[in-house]
């Protein structure tokens, strides 16, 4: 992982995501791009083209100063020295803020996008929702809940239906390797796919080329949904990150349509790392 991209809308949750990203970037020796997208209205006939360009430039300058001050304050409060060459502060104008964000992340060759979630306001970020960003991003997205503090990633829980477990683990492994975290492969057996063979950890280690993998199989708990069972497992295990590959195809995947993704983000107090399933399967 070379570049981490974090975006804030200057809310307390968004700024907390920047704080998380600063510590994560330092722990992984990654470059950090701190981004803010300014929503600009469409061109108005009451303003000349030159006047509109001047307005855009002035708006960017104001928000760039605000973002620069925020980053400096976070480093100061953490007692950390800011590495000028490894930390960039970027502000861009755009009509559609999420598109502006994704375009900026791509132009900076981001390996990971970090954003905050807004559970109390429907998970709103920049006028869109966290789940919409998850479903539109080709880059892994790490969603940070409100008031979540950075912790060294000792373990990651990866919930799976085992359909693309090897290819998905290969996409997770580079992130886990950076922090030497254990990947707990959690398979919830709800009988949706009969006779699903369970892969041995040693086989996964061989295919993925990463040794810190553990496989956990849990049978259906009477009266508990998949979502509730995942939450119960997380409460007992207390990992640092939950990993999922959302898409709307299999019976298992239907859990993760936008409304369910928002429900999970709302209730889960852990950072949620998501990678689109189609992105992984199409690249293998």
Could you explain how this protein is built, in words?
This protein is α/β, with parallel strands linked by helices. 41% of the residues lie in helices and 22% in strands. It has helices spanning 12-28, 49-78, 97-107, 130-136, 165-179, 201-208, 226-237, 258-267, 277-282, and strands at 3-7, 31-39, 87-94, 112-116, 124-125, 128-129, 141-144, 155-160, 182-189, 213-219, 241-244, 272-274. α6 (201-208) links the parallel β9 and β10. α1 packs across α2 and α4 crosses α8. The chain is elongated. The two termini are 19 Å apart.
Main sheet overview: 10 strands, mixed
Large-scale geometry? elongated
Low-confidence blocks of residues: 119-127, 253-258
**How many strands appear in the DSSP assignment?**
12
What name does CATH use for the topology of the largest domain? Rossmann fold
- Give the termini separation: 19 Å
- Kindly state the percentage of residues in helix: 40-55%
Average pLDDT, all residues: 82
Give me the strand/helix succession.
Answer: EHEHEHEEEHEEHEHEHEHEH
Structural class: alpha/beta
What radius of gyration results from the CA coordinates? Answer: 20 Å
Percent in strands:
15-25%
CATH superfamily membership of the largest domain: HUPs
CATH architecture tag of the largest domain: 3-Layer(aba) Sandwich
Number of helices: 9
Tell me the domain tally.
Answer: 2
Quick description:
The radius of gyration is 20 Å and the shape is elongated. Helix content is 41%, strand content 22%.
């Amino acid at each position: 992982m070379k570049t981490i991209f974090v975006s804030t809308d200057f809310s307390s949750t968004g700024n907390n995501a920047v704080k998380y990203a600063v510590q994560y970037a330092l722990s992984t020796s990654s470059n950090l791009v701190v981004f803010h997208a300014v929503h600009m209205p469409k061109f108005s006939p009451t303003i000349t083209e030159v006047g509109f360009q001047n307005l855009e430039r002035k708006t960017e300058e104001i928000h760039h100063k605000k973002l620069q001050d925020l980053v400096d304050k976070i480093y100061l409060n953490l007692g950390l020295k800011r590495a000028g060459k490894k930390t960039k502060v970027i502000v861009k104008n755009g009509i559609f803020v999420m598109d502006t964000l994704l375009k900026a992340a791509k132009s900076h060759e981001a390996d990971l996008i970090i954003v905050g979630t807004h559970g109390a306001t429907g998970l709103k970020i920049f006028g869109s929702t966290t789940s919409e960003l998850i479903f539109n991003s080709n880059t892994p997205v790490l969603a940070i809940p409100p008031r979540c503090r950075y912790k060294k990633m000792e373990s990651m829980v990866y919930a799976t239906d085992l359909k693309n477990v090897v290819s998905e683990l290969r996409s997770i492994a580079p992130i886990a390797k950076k922090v030497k975290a254990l990947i707990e492969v959690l398979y919830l057996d709800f009988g949706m796919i009969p006779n699903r063979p369970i892969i041995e950890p040693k086989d996964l280690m061989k295919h993925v080329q990463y040794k810190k993998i553990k496989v956990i199989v849990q049978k259906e708990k009477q009266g508990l949904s998949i979502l509730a069972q995942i939450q119960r497992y997380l409460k007992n295990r207390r990992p640092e990150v939950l990993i999922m590959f959302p898409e709307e195809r299999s019976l298992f995947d239907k859990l993760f349509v936008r409304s369910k993704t928002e429900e999970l983000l709302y209730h889960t107090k852990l950072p949620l790392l998501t990678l689109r399933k189609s992105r992984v399967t199409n690249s293998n």
